[in-house]
Amino acid sequence: MSEKPKATYRLVVFEEVDDPQGVRDLFCKVTGIHPTDAMQWVARAPGVWPRPLSESETRTLLDGLFEFGVPAEAWRTDQFPEVAPARTIHTAACLPEGFRIQGLRGEPTHWIPWDRIDLISAGCIDTGDLMHKAGPPTWSTAVSVGLRAVTFRFGRPPDRSRRAGRSPRDPLGEAIIIRRDPLIAFRIIENQMNYAYLGDRLSTKAAENFPLLLTDLCTLSKTADVTPPTHALLGGKDLAESCFPSSQALLDYSTHRLLWCWYRRARDSRTADRTDF
User: Fold this and answer.
1) Fewest C-beta in 10 Å: which of 30, 68, 176, 200?
2) Are the C-beta atoms of 100 and 108 separated by less than 8 Å?
3) How far is it, in rounded angstroms, from Cα 14 to Cα 47?
4) Cα–Cα dist 163/193, whole Å
5) pLDDT, average across residues 143-152
6) How far is Cα 112 from Cα 89, in angstroms, rounded to an integer?
7) Distances from the Cα of 82 to the Cαs of 28, 110, 133, in angstroms?
8) Element (H, E) at 109
9) Strand partners of residue 175
10) Which one-letter DSSP state was computed for residue 91?
11) CA angle, corner 132, sides to 130 and 138, nearest 5?
């Protein structure tokens, strides 16, 4: 009879680390990771440790983090909530009863009561610069080169690289909506969304419609956790507070934020039980 495989765990750290060197040494001692790699991860905390851990490693790390005053928890790998890939939606409506998602032909495909939305996480995705390739020479340049060839004055060919360049592009708004029972993540991309439900509020610009949709979601989802970058985006604050380098970075952040919400609710519930006489 084959031996049952041992369970592994995912470690989640919920706050920044006040003693980076001490926590670095803890992770180095337990996992054998190189100090430089450990310090890079600790500097980026909070977050999810990138690889599964054994039960003994997990217990030692949780005990050590407790001593450092760093809130953390562990999930069995097979029970860790996976929200990827998020389902990209293109047509939806915020209605008094809930969030209705439609298919490409307008048919209802999903319905979320407002009290089932756990998390609303939005941000601006850095789209980088748009590269312009050098085009073919203009007709006047071509004629000039031809005349030089006829008169044996060849000269230098036109420098096409000078016509190549970059054009900055505005960040693109995205939102991750996570529902519970069942756990599903939906993704909204600013310029790939049909905003027809807005009616009289509808603008011709997606960049103006996206915040209206996001505001409706946050207003109607009264029990949902709304992330700080979402508040910053709607508040018109510095984009740096709501910018992410990629869609995957936003999804990773949203997953961690969801775990933090569950951890906070469980902690508050335990506190309430202890004070309820």
Assistant:
1) 200
2) yes
3) 7
4) 34
5) 43
6) 13
7) 27, 19, 40
8) strand 108-113
9) 122, 188
10) E
11) 160
Give the residue from 204, 201, 221 showing the smallest Cα distance to 212. Answer: 201
137, 145 contact by CB (below 8 A): yes
Sign of CA dihedral 95, 98, 102, 107: negative
Q: Which residues contact 200 (CB under 8 A, 6 or more apart)?
A: none
Alpha-carbon radius of gyration of the chain? 26
Q: d(Cα 156, Cα 149) in Å, to the nearest integer?
A: 11
Cβ count near 201 (within 10 Å): 12
Query: Residue 271: pLDDT above 80?
Result: no
The enclosing H or E element of 265 equals helix 247-275
Classify burial at 221, counting beta carbons within 10 Å of its beta carbon; exposed 0-12, middle 13-18, buried 19 or more. Answer: buried
Report whether 44 contacts 252 (CB < 8 A): no
* Domains in the chain: boundaries: 9-79, 87-128+168-275
Beta bridge pairs of residue 168: 129
Q: Running DSSP on this structure, what letter comes out for residue 106? A: S
Among 70-84, 120-134, 247-261, whose mean pLDDT is lowest? 120-134
Task: DSSP for 204-231, please give it.
Answer: S-HHHHHHHHHHHHHHH-TTSEE-HHHH
Provide the whole-model pTM.
0.79
Total number of residues shown for the chain: 277
CATH architecture of 9-79: 2-Layer Sandwich (3.30)
Helix/strand/coil for 176: strand
> Which two tokens mark 270?
């335990």
**Alpha helices (H) in 227-246, listed in sequence order:** 228-234
Hunting for tokens 């562990």 — which residue is that?
74
Residue linked to tokens 């439609």: 102
The 10s digit of each residue's pLDDT in 15-61 is: 999 999 999 999 999 999 999 999 999 999 999 999 999 999 999 99
